[in-house]
């Protein structure tokens, strides 16, 4: 077995949009005199129903419905101002540079729309690193279903067991493992306390372990301790 490709999630892995989305909605809840517990938001991370679930949660606190369209505009304004000042997460460029140097194929594997994920990839000057872009636009199901990853490896022309997925959320890692990929979990602020016992390697940052060391570890089948055990 030899690793021939890597596949990267976008939200929360390349850009920490998960944390930005949480902090933005928490600010809105505080405007209403309430809080948005991280423990609650964490349960929704990585999925596509975060927004309606958040609205339902706020409505439950208030005991009445809210203007969701106006709420979404307000949230998006706070959120966009926040991420406009943020760079990609530490280690992302290093992983992509190393993959290019090693001749690995690279896929984006995101449950987000192309208009969202791919446009941000372009904004950060990362598009040329990717050989294939897989988003929800051309998938019938999203994570934790494995379809996104199955389509990504098919688009790269490699096997699942020749590919390493990099993910930040439980639903993302579940999708990658269900598709048969190796999986490296790199939790962010929102997902840091989630259980990732099912992954092959867990890191606190993509800077913790170089891509070549990750590949060597997986190819040799050497166990890597979970972050909590280090």
Automatic annotation (TrEMBL):
InterPro entries documented for this protein: HAD-like_sf, HAD-SF_hydro_IA, HAD_2, HAD_sf, PGP-like_dom2
GO MF annotations in UniProt: hydrolase activity
Keyword terms, alphabetized: Hydrolase
Protein name: HAD-IA family hydrolase
Organism: Paenibacillus profundus
Organism lineage string: Bacteria, Bacillati, Bacillota, Bacilli, Bacillales
């Amino acid at each position: 077995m030899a690793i021939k490709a890597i596949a990267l999630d976008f939200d929360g892995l390349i850009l920490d949009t998960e944390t930005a989305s949480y902090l933005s909605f928490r600010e809105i809840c505080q405007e209403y005199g309430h809080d948005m517990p991280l423990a609650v938001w964490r349960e929704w991370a990585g999925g596509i129903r975060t927004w309606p679930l958040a609205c339902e949660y706020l409505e439950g606190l208030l005991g009445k419905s809210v203007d969701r369209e106006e709420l979404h505009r307000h949230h998006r304004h706070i959120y966009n101002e926040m991420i406009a000042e943020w760079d990609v997460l530490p280690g992302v460029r290093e992983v992509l540079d190393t993959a290019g140097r090693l001749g690995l194929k690279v896929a984006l594997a995101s449950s987000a729309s192309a208009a969202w994920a791919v446009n941000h990839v372009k904004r950060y000057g990362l598009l040329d690193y990717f050989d294939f872009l897989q988003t929800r636009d051309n998938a019938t199901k999203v994570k934790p279903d494995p379809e996104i990853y199955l389509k990504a490896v098919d688009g790269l022309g490699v096997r699942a067991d020749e590919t390493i997925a990099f993910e930040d959320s439980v639903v993302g890692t579940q999708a990658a493992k269900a598709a048969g990929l190796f999986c490296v979990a790199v939790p962010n602020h929102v997902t840091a306390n989630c259980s990732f016992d099912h992954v092959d390697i867990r890191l606190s940052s993509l800077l913790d372990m170089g891509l070549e060391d990750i590949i060597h570890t997986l190819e040799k089948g050497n166990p890597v301790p979970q972050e909590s055990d280090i």
